[in-house]
Amino acid sequence: MAAYVMHAFATLPDVTSPLHRITVDGEAHDLPAALVLVANCGELVPPFLRLRDDIAPDDGWLDVLVLRAEGVIQSLAAFLELLRRPVNGARQLWFGRGRSVRVEVLEGPPQPMQLDGEPWGHAPFEARLLPAALSVIVDPATAPLGRRAPRRG
Question: Starting at the edge strand that comes first in sequence, how are the strands of the sheet with 100-105 ordered?
Fold first, then answer.
């Protein structure tokens, strides 16, 4: 993880926020973005960096974080905002939630993407929830069928 952190700090002077179109469940939002994150879990660096308290892998939603920053100072300010787990309206963060998300770059060169930390081509991309696409084996004593297990921690 230290290598990721060092790489992130080294690239901060080059951070820019080209205009992106983020379409969530058919509703388009044109936003400047240095980072667009589409996630189905709330923890980026468990348990230290949590996006928001209301995000869970089993909640049936894709959560979207758009981070706007130009250069070192704004990047660090955006990261501090993220640590405070704000709601929409924060200066440099925007949150969305839906069942389908499309991300397009409207200005500048193609932007690289990552899937679970690995390089995965360039935007545009689309993510969709597919209900019942994954079978999960659970212990009936802790997650009875038809009921959601209580949240821990």
Answer: 27-32, 19-24, 100-105, 125-128
